[in-house]
Amino acid sequence: MASATLLLPLRSRFAGQALPAAFAKALAQADRATGDAGERAQLRRHFQLIPDHWPIAALTRQRDAGDAAQASWLRVDPAHVAPDMGGARMLSHGEALALTAEDVAQLLPALRPLFGDAGFSLDAPHPSRWYLRLPRESRLPTFATPDEVLGEDLFAHLPEGDLGRRWRALLTEAQVVLHNHPWNSVRASLGKPAVNSLWFWGAGALPDFVRTRYRQVKGNDTLLRSLASAAGVADETGDAQEVDALVDLRHLRDLGMLARDAVQPLLEAVRKRELQSLGLDFEDGAIFRLRREQRWRFWRKSLPKLDA
Q1: What is the pLDDT of residues 46-94, one digit of tens each?
Q2: Is there a contact between 157 and 88 (Cβ–Cβ < 8 Å)?
Q3: What is the C-alpha to C-alpha distance for residues 135 and 70, in angstroms, rounded to an integer?
Q4: How many angstroms separate the CA atoms of 193 and 96, rounded?
Q5: Are 122 and 107 in contact, with CB atoms under 8 Å apart?
Q6: 142-166: string of b/e by CB count within 10 Å (b at 16+)?
Q7: Rounded CA gap, 40 and 232, in Å?
Q8: pLDDT tens, 6-15?
């Protein structure tokens, strides 16, 4: 019998919202577990990579362009930064910049010579996802993810040490090129933020294998879809009650909507034995597994709040 698992945001995203009564009772009766917190840990609970590493750039490159094998890859995503006391703060990056093919056509030619002189090939198969192709054996520093840097001082997250020196210099030179580029004046006239920086992250080579127990993955997140593709899972089709399904609801911020539109129909399917179980996996590491036989745990009091 099939099962369903919902990927959910941090429980703190629902802070201050009342937990619907039926949902509160079901959670109280559920089996509970605790995993590591964070997006990476959450996704790794459902996808196994061999070798065991986390090369986001190679995974998304394979989905974007289908040519990730035989090289290492580094995401070089466009970003908007603003000067701050003693530094610069990243205010937006990637898709938040609403980049178009015209933006890429204007900006990339100015940056390519810089990276070409360093021995790297820069391209952008998607307007929001830019890539450097690197030799597979490249030694690279540790890069912070854009989400770790967003809203913070850019320079506090730059790669450190001798390995990081080259990338710090390349970032500075790229910022000069972008700051002086006339296309940013055009973007400003359209009310769009300037593309005045880049961010390096997600380095690595494509894994040999990606495995998952799910036969269906639903969601629009680029990394999730890239992992599903690498694992041989086709784009979402069919009914989640027919196969083991992983459903991405990390974008939700309304607890009532989550309970009414997602959890309650799936709990009804569990009650009717159309689903064997329903899993709720929160980004903070809280995990609930709901099954039909748990209804006999009637002595358990309803959860007073989601993070209880």
Answers
A1: 999 999 999 999 999 999 999 999 899 999 999 999 988 878 999 999 9
A2: no
A3: 8
A4: 10
A5: no
A6: ebbbbeebbeebbeebbbeeeebee
A7: 20
A8: 999 999 999 9
